[in-house]
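Hi, here's the filled form for the chain we discussed.

Project: internal
Contact: R.S.
Residues: 234
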Amino acid sequence: MRVPDRRSIVGSWRSGEPVVVWGIIVVCSVVWLVQTGLRILAPDLYSSLMMSTMFVPALVPAYPWSWLTSMFLHAPSILHVLFNMLTLWVVGPYLERALGHIPFLVMYLVSGLGGSVGILAWARITGQWMTASYGASGAIFGLFSAVLVAYHAMGEDIRSLVVWIAINLAIPFVVSNVAWQAHVGGLVAGAVLAWLMVSGVRSLRGRGVGTRMAVYGGALSLVLVAAGVFLIVA
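And the returned structure, exactly as it came back:
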């Protein structure tokens, strides 16, 4: 895969190519390399940085930015970041071309927020407030559910995609230390946002994708953050 230069990035942006997908992959990969370097060279700094940037339900009031930063962190094993980035490259370009760059980014971030709410809901149910989670998989599951909703709306055969999602949801039952709660949260958030974009309020159906994503994405983000705050303080 060739690394694009500035002119090719601008050209790809204007032509609707998946620039944001590439950007997320680069950011996650660079962050993983920084994590790896710090873990080897400065373990104390690494521990401090991870504690303040991964999503830990009990620490969210102290580190509210972890809602965002946790989406771009990954486990020390290269398999975690590699699998997530390959999966993003499979599903992301379709949605970015269909939605546009900024609406796609909103979809990704809202799905990631949904993943964090899934973690908070589990913490509220089980009392496991110090369980840490990080990674792009919650957001990626939201993208898959968005494709599922879009395909269903177009009358496409979605059985293979349903099977794929079911298999990935089952992985935590055979692989330990996988935050399935974030997968479920992202899946639900992505599906809701996609359904709103496809159907939604009748008066907004004729509006552009950017306008609808701004309204629905903004509203759903507020709902998710409010739900997260409620789960913490309730």
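Let me know if anything looks off before we file it.
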